[in-house]
Amino acid sequence: MVQADLFAELQLLCRRSFPERLEQRISQIQSIDEGRHPQVSFSLAWREGRRPRVELLVLRRYADRWTWWSVQDEHKAEREWEVGCWLYGQGLPVPAMYASGTADQAPYLLTARPPGRSHPFTGPADLEAYVERAARLLSQLHRLVPPAAVRRLLPEVQARGEIARLSSLARACMDDGLVEALDELARQEMEEYPPCVLHGDLQVDRVRIDARGITAILDWEVAALGDPRWDLARVGVELHRQEAHLLAERFYSSYEEQSHLSTQGMTYWEALASVQQWTTLAWLEGTGAAATTEPLDEIRGSAWRALTHLRYGRADAT
Predict the structure, then answer these.
(1) In angstroms, rounded to a whole number, what is the distance separating the alpha carbons of residues 141 and 317?
(2) Cα–Cα–Cα angle for 126, 128, 132, nearest 5°?
(3) Residues 6+ apart with CB under 8 A from 223
(4) For the chain, which domains are there?
(5) Cα–Cα distance between 246 and 178 in angstroms, integer?
(6) Distance of alpha carbon 99 from the chain centroid
(7) What is the pTM of this model?
(8) What is the pLDDT of residues 109-129, one digit of tens each?
(9) Which of 61, 57, 74 minimizes the C-alpha distance to 109?
C-alpha cells in the first residue's frame, strides 16, 4: 500500500510539473539512504513527438526545520529552490530544479538526478583531485552576486553574531564545555571579509563526481551570506578528520590562488565552524527537537583540536 501510495504521488507530481511530457510512465522507484531528509529516485519516461525520452529524477522531503544557522528555519525548501535555480542558470554543477512545494504539510523538492558517484574517493588521487576542484568551484561561487529573489532568502551571518547566538543555546543546554569553548572564541579578534554566497555545509556526501570532475554539488538549504572562510572551514575540518592534513593546507592554498583572498586564520574558522555544529547538535539532542545523523563525537573532537591549536597560537590545525 505504501508503495502504491508513493507511485500515485509521483504520478500526480510529474503530471503537474511536466504537463508537456506526454504518455508519462514511472518506474525504478528506489529510496536513497543519504542524510536526514527522505529521498526517492525514479525514472520518468515520456514521448516527445515520435521520440521516446527518459530522465532520472529525485524527490526530496524535508524532515526538519533546523540548519547550522538556526534551530528553527522556515525557509529551507524555498531557499534551496531559489538558490538551485539561480546557480543552475549560472552554469555551476547543480541539478536541474523542476518543482518545489508542500504536500501533506511537508515541503518537497523535485530535481534531476545528477550523474556521478555518491562516494567519490577510491584512493589518494581521487581525494587530491577533489580538493583542487572544490577549491575552484567555491572560488567561483564566492564571486557571484545573487539576485534579489535569492538574497532575501539567505541569512546574513557574522562571527560575533553567531557566537552570541550559540552562547545562548549552550547555556540552555547547561553544557560547561560548550560555554567555555564559545567564551574562548569570543575573546579572539578576527577581521571578517565582505560577505559572499556560501554553500554552508560542503561535505563529501554533498558532492557527486565522475572521471571528468565534480558533476554536482547538492543540498543548498544551508546557503547563506557570510565570510567565505565559513565554507573553507567546513571542507578543511572534514579533511582533518580523515587525517588528510596536508591536503587541507593544499585546499586552502588552491582556493587562495583561485580567489586571490588570503586564507589566514583558518584555525579560528575551523574552531568556530565545529563549535557551531557541536552547539546545534547538543541543543537538538537536549530538547529532542529533531533526530540527526551527524557524528557528534567527531564534531566535538574537531572543535577541541582546533581550539587547542588556537589556544597555543599555532597557525595550522594538523
Answers:
(1) 25
(2) 115
(3) 79, 80, 83, 154, 197, 198, 199, 200
(4) 2-112 (3.30.200.20), 124-311 (3.90.1200.10)
(5) 28
(6) 20
(7) 0.92
(8) 999 999 888 766 666 777 788
(9) 61
